[in-house]
């Protein structure tokens, strides 16, 4: 059966580029889910720091939970998805768990410890779903167009990240209550779960699945994949989290509190615009080149924050960083992984990144508390430049 001149299951955009239907379905789920999650993400840093009065170090510890707390479970979930060849099931459990956490946030009240526990549970859901979702994308698209496929998905995902703060801003402005933001976020998350169940299709491979979790670790025996993981982890360790970037912008500009949820919009808008073009560019000229471009943009973000301007460049440059790196590194990793262990391999890469980002948040929070924000930014920028010596492994 053909639709608009192409095989059923593939949709063609106005640009004439074939985009697999499963990629579009997963992108839609990510769009809706990110509306929900970014509603919370947009208000949580300022709630913790400005309302509860957490120190930069304490906030760094909570922020670190966003990245590293699910490392072991992420690998176990990915192995289970490969072992059962049920990637949709494992990813669906992750989406459902994160949705449930939206209701748990109001119950946490003003306790930073309870909020941290809810954040950990939410990130557990994200850890469960991310690798199976990316494996489904890589299995649904032609290997020569993986950059484009991941670019389309990340653009849709980031469209949700753009809308989430807007919805949070509207709800918070209308109600004046954080609980209302959490309640609406839960309803949107449930919609995402429903779309996932109805429209996403599983993908299975002919190769026999791994019997134990060891094959995931054995993937590091491949020199190309090992160097890719080392590069990703090293760069993750010197990447300041978005939450700190937004806090520094608010601190340096004196932006009114009610406008703080809108800060991620600048980042998301640029990400949406550039994710697909940069994904296609990575397929054509090399994923390493685009990957390096993104990290040079990150260094420029640090420079603007450390030098007290120009602040108007910070959010667009941060969006460029994500558009040039997030999907690109997954597209680079996919072809290096053997059949039957693709989910586990992507989870291994993502786990390394997550642990590195967790340490980064803690280290930068400690550096800010001890020495001030500028020395920490300088150290991170130098670290990025040093790590880019490994850029050639990203292809």
Radius of gyration: 20 Å
* Count of domains: 1
CATH topology: Growth Hormone, Chain: A
Strands across the major sheet, in which order? 1-2
CATH class: Mainly Alpha
**Distance between the ends:** 35 Å
Strands, count? 4
Question: Under the CATH scheme, which architecture would be assigned?
Answer: Up-down Bundle
| Percent range of helical residues | over 70%
Protein name: MFS family permease
Pfam families: MFS_1 (PF07690)
Membrane topology: Multi-pass membrane protein
Transmembrane segments: 12-32, 44-77, 155-174, 180-200, 228-249, 261-278, 285-305, 377-394
Could you please describe the fold and organization of this structure?
- It is a multi-pass membrane protein.
- One of its GO terms (cellular component) is plasma membrane.
- It comes from Nonomuraea muscovyensis.
- Helix 1 (21-51) packs parallel to helix 4 (87-108) and helix 2 runs antiparallel to helix 14.
- This protein has a single domain, classed as MFS general substrate transporter like domains (Growth Hormone, Chain: A, Up-down Bundle), CATH 1.20.1250.20.
- The chain contains 15 helices and four strands.
- The chain has 395 residues and is mainly alpha-helical.
Outline the fold blueprint:
Elements: E1 2-3, E2 6-7, E3 10-12, E4 18-20, H1 21-51, H2 56-68, H3 71-84, H4 87-108, H5 112-140, H6 146-175, H7 178-199, H8 214-218, H9 223-237, H10 242-253, H11 263-285, H12 287-306, H13 314-333, H14 342-371, H15 373-387
Antiparallel strand pairs: 1-2, 3-4
Helix pairs in contact: 1-4, 1-5, 1-6, 1-7, 2-5, 2-14, 3-4, 3-5, 3-14, 4-5, 4-7, 5-14, 6-7, 6-11, 6-13, 9-14, 9-15, 11-12, 11-13, 12-13, 12-15, 14-15
């Amino acid at each position: 059966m053909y639709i608009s001149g192409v095989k059923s299951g593939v949709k063609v955009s106005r640009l004439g580029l074939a985009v697999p239907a499963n990629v579009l379905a997963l992108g839609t789920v990510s769009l809706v889910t990110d509306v929900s999650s970014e509603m919370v993400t947009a208000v949580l840093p300022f709630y913790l720091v400005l309302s509860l009065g957490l120190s930069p170090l304490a906030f760094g510890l909570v922020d670190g939970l966003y990245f590293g707390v699910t490392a072991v479970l992420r690998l176990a979930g990915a192995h289970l998805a490969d072992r059962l060849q049920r990637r949709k099931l494992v990813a669906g459990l992750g989406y459902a768990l994160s949705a449930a956490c939206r209701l748990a946030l109001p119950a946490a009240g003003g306790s930073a410890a309870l909020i941290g526990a809810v954040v950990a549970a939410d990130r557990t859901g994200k850890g469960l779903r991310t690798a199976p979702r990316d494996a489904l994308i890589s299995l649904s698209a032609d290997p020569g167009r993986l950059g484009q496929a991941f670019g389309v998905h990340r653009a849709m995902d980031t469209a949700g990240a753009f809308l989430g703060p807007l919805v949070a801003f509207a709800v918070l402005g209308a109600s004046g209550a954080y609980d209302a933001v959490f309640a609406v976020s839960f309803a949107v998350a449930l919609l995402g779960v429903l779309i996932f169940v109805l429209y996403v299709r599983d993908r299975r491979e002919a190769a026999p699945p791994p019997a134990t979790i060891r094959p995931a670790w054995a993937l590091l025996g491949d020199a190309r994949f090992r160097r890719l993981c080392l590069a990703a982890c090293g760069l993750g360790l010197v990447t300041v989290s978005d939450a700190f970037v937004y806090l520094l912008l608010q601190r340096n500009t004196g932006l009114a509190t009610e406008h703080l949820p809108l800060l991620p919009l600048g980042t998301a808008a640029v990400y949406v615009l550039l994710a697909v073009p940069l994904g296609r560019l990575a397929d054509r000229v090399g994923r390493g080149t685009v990957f390096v471009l993104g990290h040079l943009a990150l260094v420029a973000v640090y420079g603007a924050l450390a030098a007290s301007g120009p602040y108007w460049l910070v959010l667009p440059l941060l969006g460029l960083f994500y558009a040039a790196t997030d999907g690109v590194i997954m597209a680079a990793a996919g072809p290096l992984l053997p059949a039957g262990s693709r989910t586990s391999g992507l989870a291994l890469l993502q786990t390394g990144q997550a642990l590195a980002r967790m340490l980064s948040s803690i280290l930068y929070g400690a550096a800010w508390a001890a020495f001030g924000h500028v020395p920490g930014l300088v150290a991170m920028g130098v670290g990025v430049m040093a790590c880019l010596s490994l850029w050639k492994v990203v292809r």
